[in-house]
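Example record for the data management plan.
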Amino acid sequence: MNAMVLDSLEPEICFLIRDDFYYGPDRHADLSERNLVEKLIPPMLRQEFASIVRTTEARGHEKELADYYWQIVSAARRHAKDFNHVRHYFWMRLWLSNAAEKLSISFPWYDSLSEMRRFSGAIATDAVGDLYWDEDQGWRLDVKGTDDRLLIHQRDPDSDDTGLLVSVPRSAFLRKMTESMQDATAIVARLTQEMGADVWTAYVSDGPVWNRP
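Corresponding structural encoding:
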């Protein structure tokens, strides 16, 4: 399989945004029960897509993003939902995209910064050959390094489809990946100050203690 040679690949770290809060029965959120919802007011900031807030959009607007999350905390309290029932409202996502080619590489099973750091840390090296791989339901990612390029391959391991294989300039991508991780880490630190608990960096097993009673 020949790699698609790209001039650039842009990493984007995003906060997932939902427009309603579901408080119905667990594991039964089918269409007939979608009336068991409360509307959520989206963050009061300019974002290109309603379903995500990029780190570039959140920078300097952490208070507005925290106000959105406080709605979720309040709704969970009203409906007696513990954090295990609502943790998905705090999920993040990582994408690698090239707008000119209209393509993207996704990490659908990475919900927190710690998972993204596992990827960014593994490729932050001068080594050549196999640098990183991960696999989950219907998704696999492999990264190999040459002296000046990274080969990134995303595919469905359960399918005969060869997926997407791209070749990108190594140093430029690593610099952008580092900057994106730094931005996301700084934003999460500010959100943690606003909320009193960090539920974005890693999996939280116990219920967080929020700033507001």
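Summary line stored alongside the record: Residues 170-195 form the longest helix (26 residues).
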